[in-house]
Write a structure and sequence with these properties.
Layout lengths: L13 H7 L1 E7 L6 H19 L3 E7 L6 H6 L7 E7 L5 H11 L4 E4 L11 H9 L5 E6 L7 H14 L11 E7 L1 H8 L8 H7 L4 E6 L13 H15 L2 H31 L6 H34 L6 E7 L2 H4 L3 H7 L1
Parallel strand pairs: 1-2, 1-4, 2-3, 5-7
Antiparallel strand pairs: 3-8, 4-6, 5-6
Length: 348
């Protein structure tokens, strides 16, 4: 029985890359105000990529249960210079599910993930594509150049998260890396074969390996609105990443148990020594209450950590679909539709 997967037949050469093209996956949630401008910028990007690399492009908008007019606006976007797919999910499944939906519906060979809030500059895509086609890299990921505009506590929390998730890990997740990244055809094929339903794309894209390169950039200001990722959602995503890619919380709980047991043993020795040397009995009630509260609190923390992993196992065993598509529409590029059947076949 073969437990691995061979994707060596999916070449990353320039000729293959140009023939298959690029799919730009954009998950959107309540982005009605900025979607037309973003689509215009992606159209200009597609034109430059076609001129510079001869690369055919499509964009896949994944509406993750928006409550505004995002879906209606997406339906009306023109396919003048690139193909347009609109995938509407039945409800808000979360960004990770939306990314997976876009990955499943991408028709081209390589896939580019971008946010719909305008903070991922389309102009940087040319550099990422160049690393892929001319540099031969399979995963080209971006990362924040610095976090000077963030609070000290947020920077400390981010560093702590990456230190914890990479503690003892064989394949480390790059610090400050985001979802703005490009995957070659064989990286896409590898990513699609990973079976877990609780997905953390930052970790999965690093785990598959292949040739990877980091590109630092400065995120642009949001073109409209405010982010929906509040502290609780970021905390939930962090827990999702930790329980998906690291056993560090379990190791931490074990080390904490060993530490408390050692402290309790030394405290017991000190009591025996004091009784033996002075003959005085140590009052037991305060120390007993403090000890019980400490041990009880640590046990609850450990049970909670184990419960997170058990909940993850339960979710995987249920094997529920990651998402449901309520509506799917597609518009072919006008330039491509005017091409001959032979040319369309070669492009695909």
């Amino acid at each position: 029985m073969i437990l691995g997967s061979d994707v060596s037949n999916l070449s990353t050469t320039a000729a293959t890359a140009v023939a298959r093209g690029l799919s730009i996956v954009v998950p959107v949630y309540n982005e009605a105000a900025g979607l037309p401008v973003l689509h215009q910028r992606l159209g200009a990007l597609a034109t430059r990529l076609r001129q510079r690399f001869g690369l055919a492009c499509e964009v896949v908008y994944v509406d993750d249960g928006s409550e505004d007019t995002t879906l209606a606006i997406a339906r009306g976007l023109a396919a003048d210079v690139l193909d347009v797919q609109v995938v509407s999910l039945s409800r808000n499944f979360g960004k990770e599910a939306a990314l997976m939906a876009g990955l499943d519906h991408a028709r081209r060979g390589a896939v580019m993930f971008m946010d719909g809030d305008g903070q991922h500059p389309p102009d940087l895509v040319e550099k990422l594509v160049d690393h892929w086609i001319n540099g031969g890299y399979d995963v080209v990921y971006t990362a924040k150049a610095n976090r000077d505009n963030e609070t000290f506590l947020r920077r400390l929390a981010v560093r702590g998260f990456y230190a914890l998730i990479n503690w003892g890990a064989r394949q480390k997740i790059p610090e400050d890396a985001g979802d703005f990244r490009l995957l070659s055809p064989r990286a896409v094929a590898a990513l699609k074969q990973l079976p877990e339903r609780n997905r953390f794309f930052k970790g999965l894209a690093s785990w598959i390996g292949f040739r990877q390169i980091r590109v630092d950039y400065e995120p642009a200001p949001r073109t409209h609105g405010v982010t929906t990722f509040n502290v609780m959602r970021l905390l939930g995503l962090s827990i999702e990443g930790l329980t998906s890619f690291s056993v560090a919380p379990l190791r931490f709980a074990s080390l904490l148990g060993v530490l408390l047991a050692s402290v309790a043993f030394l405290f017991g020795l000190s009591i025996v020594w004091e009784v033996w040397t002075t003959g005085k009995q140590v009052p037991g009630y305060p120390s007993l209450v403090v000890g019980l509260m400490t041990i009880g609190g640590v046990q609850l923390i450990m049970i909670g950590i184990v419960g997170e992993y058990i909940g993850k196992i339960l979710s995987e065993l249920k094997a529920r679909p990651i998402y449901f598509v309520a509506e799917h529409s597609e518009k072919r590029c006008e330039a491509e539709a005017a091409a001959s059947p032979g040319e369309r076949t070669a492009a695909e």
